[in-house]
């Protein structure tokens, strides 16, 4: 099953097991532009799976309202690049609904799914990774899956989690990433990072599509330099699993963090700051961050811009040789 | 199909005024323009239009002196209900004056009065049922009072003490009460509109025989959320009543600088939403319009837009000084000629349902009650336990527990520099 198929499968299960679940968004009715919602309207009807007008703030606000009165709201923002009109509804409303009412009201049954990241030809407005805008917002959960199996389990957990969740889907992997995915109903914890590969020389941290890039870089480091890398997939960025990360860095003494989003104020900054505080005496080298540059996402120069496996490999080597 | 058809479909008997009756248009046959959009009527006489020939009319029941304008419009309410409505309007008025003074004395951080808009609150709230869900903006305290939210709860919220149902998290007047189906007020303007549409949709699917009422002002109607909300409510058939309190001002900005169209009402028609405008200082017009709107929303599962024309009698808030941008003449002429409380009182006096003695007694008892509950609210302390652990996430993340420990550790040494808690 590929990643978009796993998402679709999770949505089938979510709608099937929860009669109050509603799926909404632009072009969702015919199956969605990425086909994540295919067959859902036919199966669950137009009242539960429907198109909305083209208005992201409307989608987010409407979904907050659905969740606040007892429906499970699964809203799609067609591209993460277009989530910004919904920013106020997400940051000022969804995130604060429970807190501001002293727990009287909440919109915890809200999940916003949105495809993010580089695809090779997306340019400024079909490539962005805006996760850090949301990880700076108490009251939200921010989840990014790396593979089809992970995507299905994490999405089901997100939909059923009683907090509002922003679920970033790595659209580059929608069709490229395939693995065996059980057709049954299963969930993956939103609290724990996943140690994808154990190692002893250096800890490499990422999330989403960047995990594949890091695995390739680590393979090269192992084959060419005999470096044993420990790879951690954060899965949940807010809240994030500091314990697993710091335990690993205290063991290896070295750390490389990578994400596609620009370096400055990216989520890597939070990781690096926390790691240096917790692991100061264990660190053997400065923490490296391999990220997008501090420019808007380019079109023709995408290959130079993205933190590809060679840049990650070079950072691992620098860190080891420090 | 006639090009008038969409307009006629949306009009209802309280507002038949919208149309372009005097415009001539060619009678050539309809032409297919697009297989999806459908057919258009031809027009051979090119004209650009910016408004309909007739303005939206304003529905009224009672004049400025409390006289019912037409016997057919005589309010169908008992003496008891009428007295309760008036009593709530006066209580709101008295509460406003006491809490406003409390802010001036430095006992409250902030306050917003409801002066002048009492009829929009009580007239509309009295036409609703308890199971109807309310999303407010911030100047709808009367709706809550009508629903049974007590003065004590109001004061506790404004003080932000340990009894505050919002647990001290919101500025004064940002009331919210699950018990009264009144969602907690949020400061950003118009965000409640798309939420109200979504909530109404959820309620429709759940088969609840109730509607959502969403209050907002003329300024909020300029926000993108307003337009998104009306379009969503229309295309998704949501049983929601959008209630615009057009009080003439958004802080200092008068409506002539806020919009150029025929108020907010005309926008409803463009979204194919049943729309009507009423005199917002006429409690019976508001009551009737809300009663009809509720029937439409619930029986037809569609949205309704109401524009109530009223006047903000006080400052925007205690942080505002309205004398900087509007003349005292304007305010005093409103007080003399169009005060909703005075109009309601005159109506009741004509029926021998009210007299000066009752008026004095009501104001006295309301004043005593509010002063008493205020003092009690001020005597309560803030509870630190309500800050940590916060009901922020369903489960408190480890990072937040760490931060809590940091604060508690800090307070061990420096606690005397912080507010007293218990």
TrEMBL record, chain A:
Reactions the enzyme catalyzes: N(6)-[(R)-lipoyl]-L-lysyl-[protein] + 3-methyl-2-oxobutanoate + H(+) = N(6)-[(R)-S(8)-2-methylpropanoyldihydrolipoyl]-L-lysyl-[protein] + CO2
Record keyword Oxidoreductase present: yes
One biological process term in Gene Ontology: response to nutrient
DNA-binding in keyword set: no
Cofactor(s) listed: thiamine diphosphate
Record Gene3D superfamilies: 3.40.50.920, 3.40.50.970
CDD domains assigned to the protein according to its UniProt record, in alphabetical order: TPP_PYR_E1-PDHc-beta_like
EC assignment: 1.2.4.4
Keywords: Oxidoreductase
Domain called Transketolase-like pyrimidine-binding: residue spans: 1-176
Example of a GO MF term: branched-chain 2-oxo acid dehydrogenase activity
UniProt name for this protein: 3-methyl-2-oxobutanoate dehydrogenase (2-methylpropanoyl-transferring)
Automatic annotation (TrEMBL), chain B:
Enzyme nomenclature, EC number: 1.2.4.4
Names of required cofactors: thiamine diphosphate
Domain Dehydrogenase E1 component: 86-370
Keywords recorded for this protein, A-Z: Metal-binding, Mitochondrion, Oxidoreductase, Potassium, Thiamine pyrophosphate, Transit peptide
Protein location: Mitochondrion matrix
Gene Ontology CC, one term: mitochondrial matrix
GO process annotations (BP): branched-chain amino acid catabolic process
Catalyzed reaction equations: N(6)-[(R)-lipoyl]-L-lysyl-[protein] + 3-methyl-2-oxobutanoate + H(+) = N(6)-[(R)-S(8)-2-methylpropanoyldihydrolipoyl]-L-lysyl-[protein] + CO2
GO molecular function, one term: metal ion binding
Pfam family, one: E1_dh
Class in the EC hierarchy, top level: oxidoreductase
Keyword Lipid metabolism: no
Transmembrane segments: none
Family, as annotated: Belongs to the BCKDHA family.
Function: The branched-chain alpha-keto dehydrogenase complex catalyzes the overall conversion of alpha-keto acids to acyl-CoA and CO(2). It contains multiple copies of three enzymatic components: branched-chain alpha-keto acid decarboxylase (E1), lipoamide acyltransferase (E2) and lipoamide dehydrogenase (E3).
The name this protein goes by in its record: 2-oxoisovalerate dehydrogenase subunit alpha
Organism annotation: Guillardia theta (strain CCMP2712)
Lineage: Eukaryota, Cryptophyceae, Pyrenomonadales, Geminigeraceae, Guillardia
